[in-house]
Amino acid sequence: MKYTRLHINHFGKLQNRTLEFSDGIHIIYGPNESGKSTMHAFLEAMLFGLERGRGRNAKKDNYSRYYPETGGSTYGGVLEFVEDDIQYAIYRNFTRDPRGFILMDETHSRKISPDEAEYRRLIAGLTLPLYRNTVSLRQLKAATSEELPEQLRSHIVNLRATGSGALDLASANEQLRKEKKSLERSLLTESENKAKESAAAAEALRDELDRLPIPAELSELEESQSLLEENLQETEERREELLSEIHSLEEEIPEEQRSASSASLLPFLLVSVLAALAGSFLLWRQLFLPGAVALGAALLLLMAGVLFTSRSRRRFGAYRRIWESIQDLRAEEEEVTGQLLSLRSKQTELSSRREDLARDLWLREQKEENLRELEEERDALEPDLEKNRLIREEIAAIDLAAETIRRLSVTAFESFGQYLQDTASALISQITDGRYTRLMMDESLHITLE
Fold first, then answer.
1. Which of 139-143, 169-173, 198-202, 322-326 has the highest mean pLDDT?
2. For 228-270, what is each residue's pLDDT tens digit?
3. 225 neighbors 350 (Cβ within 8 angstroms)
């Protein structure tokens, strides 16, 4: 590729400038700030286009740096060159498209569609990193960039594998990268997210269901409640029987004997004590006659009480056996009543538990229904998930291919490295007329001169 003519419409401070080149070496010189670096940048932009930054970086990119101060309608120019005895011309307008261009075959007066492979053939397979690290050296930028080792490795592996540059591992890796990105874009992530959300919700529901009762527990509770009700009914019937027996036995005892059975000396004793106290008080007040009368009344009341109680108990003796039976029956009735109260308390407790259990079982039915809906939703997403699984298998295959290429390229480069180092050393010795005789490179292609 040989430059023949360069025309700048507008680029930075340069406008409407034309340079023509003939065979041989050309030196472009001028004072500081005359536009030499701008012209150097223009050549690069004509070959590879301009990159535009985004956000804050947009103000510092080359597109903004060289944007014409007088307006961008003619931001660009023309680069003419010869390749294989055919005259070509590249036309670029960076305002319309920072990367786009028109390629003309001026020898045959025809327009060539911007085909990337054909264009790279015309510029000898150069990429922007290779261009910047080989044929183009910017001012104070003689050191190679970090991109050169990868480009050089790819070229070495191409030569090692095919004997020529026909095999382009960099392009292969780029194609794999694009294919991977395309596959990643085709992933149905929304379906996956829904499936994950459904799975998480279903797991949470299963945990909740594990803590909720099962229908069998209600059956067991109802059985216990039924047995309790039977026991309660039997106990109530027994209490009724006891009350009936007590009532029948009490009917056998005359009314006056029932009251006599409860006759007590205590009322007579209390009254006689009060009368004795009153008599003592009267005597202390020296009222002898009333005092004596009061003490006599107290004595008579005490004797009357003893006599009444004794007679009542003698009358009640004939019915003692019946009364003892009544007392035994009443004691049993009290015990049965206690059992009855305990059973009714348990009945209330079981009823409350049954209500809680019924509510929990209703809640369980709702959650089981929700779980079925989630599982149906998961089943509906299964075709999308299966598609994603297949896509990820392809992505894994691409990753494996890229890793295999990387390992093979490293192996090929290592086997070629010594030859490259010796050849580069011979060239640098010739270029420097023997001042530097050996060039050494490490595995990262960092270069040192001996």
1. 198-202
2. 889 989 989 988 988 888 888 877 776 655 554 445 556 666 7
3. yes
State the distance between the two ends of the chain, measured CA to CA, in whole angstroms. Answer: 34
Whether residue 203 is predicted with pLDDT greater than 70 in this model: the reply is yes
269-290 pLDDT, tens digit each: 676 677 667 767 777 776 767 7
- pLDDT at 445 (0 to 100): 64
Query: CA 37, 38, 41: angle at the middle one, nearest 5?
Result: 85
Residues 331-343 pLDDT 10s:
888 898 898 899 8
* Helix, strand or coil, per DSSP, at residue 74: coil
Q: Do 125 and 165 contact (CB within 8 A), yes or no?
A: yes
| In the block, residue with structure tokens 């409860």 | 262
According to the 3-state scheme, what is the secondary structure of 324-375? Answer: HHHHHHHHHHHHHHHHHHHHHHHHHHHHHHHHHHHHHHHHHHHHHHHHHHHH
- Tell me what pLDDT residue 260 has: 47
**Contact indicator for 339, 270 with CB cutoff of 8 Å:** no
Residue that the structure tokens 């044929």 belong to: 135
4 and 87 Cβ atoms separated by less than 8 Å: yes
- Which residue from 80, 78, 97, 96 is spatially nearest to 88, judged by alpha carbons? 80
At 191, is the secondary structure helix, strand, or coil?
Answer: helix
| Whole-number average pLDDT of the chain | 80
Rounded-to-integer distance, Cα 326 and Cα 207, Å: 61
- Which of these, 174, 217, 157, lies nearest to 359 by C-alpha position? 217
Angstrom distance (rounded) from CA 422 to CA 406? 24
pLDDT at position 129? 76
3-class secondary structure per residue, 403-439: HHHHHHHHHHHHHHHHHHHHHHHHHHHHHCCCCCCCE
Q: List the one residue out of 101, 75, 74 whose CA is nearest residue 88.
A: 101
Q: How far apart are CA 45 and CA 63, in angstroms?
A: 9
pLDDT at position 19: 92
Query: DSSP per residue over 303-323, as a string?
Result: HHHHHHHHHHHHHHGGGHHHH
Token output for 209: 């269901």
Q: Which residue has the tokens 């670029």?
A: 92
Give the number of other CB atoms < 10 A from CB of residue 182.
Answer: 10
Q: How far apart are CA 58 and CA 95, in angstroms?
A: 14
